[in-house]
Amino acid sequence: MLWGASLVMFAGGGAAWVWHQQTAPRRLEAALEPYAQLLSISLPRVVGMRATNQVTEILVALRAAPAVMEAAVTDMQGRPLGVYRSRFEAPPRPVGFQPEGLYVTEGDVRLVRDIRVDGQAVGQLHLWSRVALLDSGAKNFSHVFVGMGGLLLVLTFWQTWRVRRAVIEPIAALTAKVDNIIEKTGLQPVEPVKMEDELERLDAHVEQMHQALAQRQKELQAANDFLKAVLDNAAPAIISVNLQGTITGFNPAAERLLGYKAEEVVNRRTPLLFHDSAEIKERAEELSRLMGQPVSEDMEVFFCLPRRGQTDAREWTYICRDGRRVTVWLALNPLVDAQGQLKGYVGIAEDLTERKQQEQELRRKNEEMERFIYTVSHDLKSPLVTIKGFVGELLHALEEKRYDQMAGDLKRVAAATDKMSELLNDLLELSRVGRVKYPATEVSLEHVAREALMALEGVVREGGVEVIIQPDLPKVFADRHRLFEVYLNLMENAVKFMGPQPSPRVIVGWESGKPEPVFFVQDNGIGVPPAYQETIFGLFNKLDNESPGTGLGLAIVRRIIEVHGGRIWVESEGRGCGSRFCFTLGGEVLMSLSKPASSTEMCDESASSPHPVGGG
Amino acid sequence: MKVPALLILLVEDNADHAELVRRNLARHNPAHRLVHLRDGESALDYLFQRGVFAPPKAPPRPHLILLDLRLPKLDGLEVLRQVKQDPELHLIPTVILTTSDAERDLFRAYDGHANSYLAKPLDFGAFTGLLETFGRYWLGCNRYPWPEARPRGS
């Protein structure tokens, strides 16, 4: 501002000075002209008469004019007729003829006017002055000009110093800072920079930073995409919370597991929403004992171990939105930023339902295996005790020459060996189901059932049992040999466990029900009490130990059905109410299932097309 | 004074094994009576005098029970449990005689207050020897809480 004003004044002063110089002659002329006019009134007369004394007298009147330093009157040849000098310190200026006009030389001003009488020039009037006397304003203007010039110079230096402090130094500092950032962040300079001045460097560095930031942005985006993909596709539920416990992250697996949407819980709820408060209370008490200080019954039970750098992984129960309870394995870890500052916690929860089921299944298999070994050892040992015992008795009798009991004892030995052999055969069969596979072929279940009936002809006739095989049993694609065993076993059981039934009847049929067809062998025999409806399919579980058989028949049947992708179960109201053994077959087996006629609901009394075979 | 013959209740589903027990006991210890039942249900009916064993056909109370574990209808452990929970019947010494030498069975039998546990040996000599020893001890040495077999409640 000040510098601007100085500049304006400097320029103004300069311009005024130049203008003054240009207009000086006119102003000088104007200053001297009145004197010349005044003198030219009286001078023509005395010059015409060449009265030099009178000329001098007239010139003396110029004393009243301080601007005029000297004056002279000459004739036309330049000879002086009279002179006037205001001061005498300087030698008189030379006179001589000069054409009319104003002459300015080295500060001196000389005005020459002709003295005319009747239009005839008779002499000349010379007036001398000094520019300085006439034109003191010029000096003022030049003072302003010089002064302002000086001020400008000072101001310019000051300004430069200020610019240096306010602009250049900060730019240099900024450049150094940018350098530092580039160096620290490990961003490689794209090109070596020509260091001509700070701005160029700064520009280069800013460009570099821009590129580096863009690169960093791309990398961050890529890392972010990767993390998002991991979170979105992770099988475990991943839930993050801030230090207050409010949920900050809730991945899709968590949504699926718990039934809450991320937007419902993020920044709104804490995980206490889906935790069992009784479990939290229990854990708080446990932790209080462990830590020797009270742990409150809130998110603190999750935080207190991870905060101390200990991983906290254990089973918890999640209560899903629909009220379902799910056991999860929840591992909690602190969420720490790059500066080591604790920002929150991350919990990774794995659904243990499947594992629990597998464990249960494994336990069941183990128990079955244990029972199997136990029973096999017992059931194999038992006939051995008989064999050895009676062989001993036989030897004893031989020694004593008692022969009356020997035939009976030998029969006992033979029966015991038969039993052992039967058991061994069944065990072998059981182990072969699923291990040894016969090729699957198109099998008519009706044919298979009929074949089984033929094999059982003896017992069926003996028991006077009416067997009805539904003629529309479909064809399936399966292991014919095994399906024969299934029907043989189920039908044999049905006939065998008739009990005191006056009109024993067995129906072999199917229902093409939804969602899958169910095949069944139904009887009106002794039935199966509810308590045994599951266990009879287990190994060696006989409904009645007095019945013949090894207790492996239904276990083998179940195995075969399972190998064919199906299930088997029994429906019975209990003892004396008959039973219905039902099974399904896997989709692959049913693939070529064809049904010749429409399905008919089978009832005991109204078999649509009774097909009695055998019977009494 | 005539010493009454000891009455043994044998609960065994395997008829062959029962026959072996009967013969071996008879061979060395003639002075006893043996009642053989084939399943747990009838054993309890006998002991509690119900069903086919209900008065007036009530049988005498046995001095000793020889009980197999694997029995049809009701297994030996359940029979043992009911006997040992009864205020009177629990006094009857109950000896387990089974093919099983599984620890689990052994533990459960003693847990049910069995008085002794014998595993049937495979070898004939050992089997005979076991029953001979059994007879000598239980029929020769052992003293019973009541001197003679008599109907329950009389």
Distance between the terminal alpha carbons of chain B, to the nearest Å?
Answer: 21 Å
The main sheet of chain B comes to: 5 strands, parallel
The average pLDDT value of chain B, as a whole number, equals 87
Helix content of chain A: 40-55%
Fill in the keyword field for this structure.
A: 616 residues; alpha+beta; six-stranded mixed sheet; 50% helix; disordered C terminus; B: 154 residues; alpha/beta; Rossmann fold; five-stranded parallel sheet
Describe the fold and architecture.
Chain A is an alpha+beta fold and 616 residues long. In chain A, 50% of the residues lie in helices and 19% in strands. Chain A is built from 16 helices and 18 strands. Chain A has helices spanning 2-48, 52-60, 131-134, 136-185, 198-233, 252-258, 262-265, 277-291, 300-307, 353-400, 406-432, 445-455, 457-463, 480-496, 553-563, 587-590, and strands at 70-75, 80-85, 101-105, 108-117, 120-130, 237-242, 247-250, 312-319, 325-336, 342-351, 441-444, 466-469, 475-478, 505-511, 518-523, 568-571, 579-583, 612-614. Chain A has a 6-stranded mixed beta sheet. Chain A has a 5-stranded antiparallel beta sheet with strand order 2-1-5-4-3. A 5-stranded antiparallel beta sheet of chain A has the order 7-6-10-9-8. The longest helix of chain A is centred in the first third of the chain and has 50 residues, at 136-185. Chain B has a single domain (7-143), classed as Rossmann fold (3-Layer(aba) Sandwich). In chain B, 39% of the residues lie in helices and 16% in strands. Chain B has helices at residues 15-28, 40-48, 76-85, 103-111, 124-141; strands at 6-11, 32-37, 64-67, 94-98, 116-119. Chain B has a 5-stranded parallel beta sheet, with helices on both faces. In chain B, helix 1 packs across helix 5. The longest helix of chain B is centred in the last third of the chain and has 18 residues, at 124-141. Chain B is globular, with a radius of gyration of 15 Å. The model of chain B is unreliable at 149-154 (pLDDT under 50). Classes of the chains: A alpha+beta (616), B alpha/beta (154). Chain A binds chain B through residues 374, 377-378, 381-382, 384-386, 388-393, 412, 415-416, 542, 544-546, and chain B through 13-14, 16-17, 19-20, 23, 38-39, 70-73, 99-100, 102, 104, 120-125, 127-128.
